[in-house]
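Intended use. Records like the one below are meant for learning the mapping from a protein sequence to its folded structure. Do not use them to infer anything beyond what is encoded.
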Amino acid sequence: MQTVRIPSLNWLRVFDAAARHQSFASAGRELNMSAAAVSQQILALETYLKKPLFIRSANKVRLTLEGNEFLPTVQVSLRAIEAKTASLFPRKDVERISLVASQLMAMSWLPRRLAEFESENPLVRIDLIIEDAQRHSEPDMAIRFDHGMSTLTHPGWLMGIMHVVVGKKQDVDNITDTHEITDFRLLDVRSHAVGWNTLLTRYPGMLDGAAQLVESVDTTPLALMMVKESHALALVPWPASQNLVQALGLDVCKTVPAIPGLGNYYIEQFTGHGARPIINRLREDLRKAAQDTP
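Structure written out for the chain above:
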């Protein structure tokens, strides 16, 4: 069987960039090459394949029929090589930290703080993993939630929680009396120890009239999305949900006082990974960020 030689990998990288930009000059800027050098590489590939891949014009280039058919295969192959190279042969100058957190923390409070940490430490990358997701090795760190109050004294204590009423800004701005919350659907999160019943029992006569308005949902992010799209209020943990509330354009109802929550978030480190200084630095940065969160 005759072996077909594969074109130069460098030619294929240049072809991919030129096809995406539809410009030899723009491809050159991405690859730190001159437009003339890009043109030479493309010509070498076309000569090798004995087919034109681009139709040239004064200010741009576009793919021929053969170029269009060839491009997806080239792109899939290049991305597969890049991904496998990064996985098997990570760059030694980039230090990675794996961090496990709940869905709520991973979607709300953590991303901004992790982005700030990576910005201040450009040679660090944090792999954020949703709790209970399948993984093949123990993480470096985890942010856990415990309903017991004993974690107040945990050396990795991060934050406690309050439960606040959240709704669309125009809705909560119009609530001037606690009894007006019964005009809305009231969304509870099943896993939370504190819910609407806890809040409503604080106001005489409200529980009986509002109990039928309470609906249970699976997660805090789901509750917040439902609030955004319907005439509803949700009781959510704060400050863990703060950034997601803000991102969805929702607001906290100031008329209804917050309720103290049961439990705490704390940071767990795994001793089997050794005491890497960067992990300790991330832990302390997160704890400071939690203290600074209003």
